[in-house]
Design a protein that fits this description.
666 residues; transmembrane; TPR repeat; TPR_rpt; two-stranded antiparallel ribbon; 33 helices; alpha/beta
Length: 666
Amino acid sequence: MTEISQGFNHFLRELKRRHVFRVMGGYVVSFWVVLQVGDVILAPLGAPDWVMLVLIGIGIVGAPVVFALAWVYDLTTEGVRRTDDLAELDAGAVPVRLLGGRWVDYVIIAALVLILAFVLVQRDGYRPAVGSSIAVLPFSDLSAEQNNQYFADGIAEAIMDRLAQVAGIQLAARTSSFALRGAGLDARDTARRLGVESLLEGSVRRSGSRLRISTRLIDGNSGTQVWSETFEGALTDVFELQDQISRAIAGVMQVQLRLPGIEEIATGNAQAYDQYLRGRDQLRGFSSRRTLEQAVQFFQNALEADPDFALAAAGLCRARWEQYELLRDPQMAELAMTRCQETEQRFPNLAETQIAIGSLLLGTGQPEAAEEAFRRALAREANNAEAHAGLAQALLRRDDLEAAERQIRRAIEMDPAYWLYHSQLATIHYFAGRFDEAFDAAQQAIRLSPSNPAPFNLLGAIYFAQGQFLKAGDAFEQSIQQEPNAMAYSNAGTNYFFANELARAEAMFQRAVELAPDDPRQTGFLAWSIRAQAGREADAAPHHWAVVRNATERLAINARDNEARSVMALHLAALDQDIAAQAALVGLGDYAELDENVLMTTGFAHYLLGQKARAVQAFDLAIDKGLPFSLLEADPRLKAAWNDVDFAALAARHHNPTPVTEGESS
């Protein structure tokens, strides 16, 4: 024992004589300074996380190298010299003079003490914590094929759906958190940007029928990991794994998580769940004919694999109705209504079902029932932004603009990065006649989704309502540049029609009809652009009849569809079917209950029937409800009307002090 003690003491004396303590102390101080500087500057420079890991690895590997060099060499006033052995010193060798003196040791000791104090104070002064607000970031796909990102996104969204049902948690919406994918922000910047206290990160590794989900909860204030766990199981157990993760997070956040019965919404079929996630991924993007067809196919595949999969049934209901909303094909409306009714009967307690039913009820002219459906969805998921946005649309249809604005602002508060909600806010401002506010909201929608044509269409509508046809045309052209579609060409055609450039209008409407042959709106616009050209009434007749047939089919689906009824009356009047047109007008009931667009169409029908006083009555009501007088003033169909006494009185009551001239609108 004595020999061991003597040997250890000798080793310590050698470390001191060879100045290893001094060198290693300086190395530790320098390494700590490098890490602190790296922590500050790497994130702003956009450096990936592995750079810091490389620096730490270099520091650890370099320690034994520095130790060995300090043992063998000294830094002297004469340069780097090999350290003298004890035998050489005993033989009378003159010791070399080291660079620096005792003060270097004192500086190193002081620096080490300061570092130790800093670490202790930092650890005691701040402890990682989890607040009541959280953002679920997009999970990484670690599968070998790297083709399962939709699946990883679906897992993250499913966890969001569960956490959204907790009243005590403020959850950043999917659009906001997913918008930061690949932004290169560190945890603290991400939490600050999303306005949350905690972040959930994760990764998904899918291998055959096995699934591994790794998760970690991060304190957004310090970037420190608070909790982490890995969950593994068969792909058929994916809902149970999601349940375990959600409950674990709720436990860390110290809230009670009340989940719906998993047996009601889950599937044990891996193929069904995969197809459901693919369909949901398609619905998340911009709705086009192709994306909706793919969504329908994926949801159908999921239900073929598992007919009792509630989420897939709700997804198919919604995709079918969005198809009808986009294409206005009555057969698609029948498919959507059948599917949604079946889904509601089988899975009435699912929030997704109620949202889809609410959308269908809105489209079939039942805003009161739609409002009830969206409220039922919110009773199940109070933090569901889609349900708040749907409720806003229902309230807008009921002319409760103030309540509609409150609901859409609530949706924006929960999901500020989703362009559609800003677009809906712009629509509410538009109907309230607040065009400046509508313009600002539409511009925000464009900033959030610059490649999306829909906000450009809305911006064009705002300009058009103000009689600024040139600016409207520019907005519509930008929409066509983003994605050539029927609505964009139709809007451009409308602009040319009001500018009295009828041939250009016809060309635009013809292109719109080619892209959406089942949409009667485009066919109707084409008919008017042809009819307005001298000597071409006969060429317009087939298009007028096509609109009448479609309106008849729409009324068979929804007898309260006043838009379809007024359109039918207008085109029957254009075809000199006066008795049938008058009958359709009678079916509209009390004009005071109609919205401004239906009233405008009704006014044109009365005008073509020669009932100028009734036409003025309808136009008066439409203007009182928000229809800009400049649109009537610029409409080529009313070019000869303003010499009439009743129309002159209408102009006197509502005349725009700065009317749009034909030259300005071209």
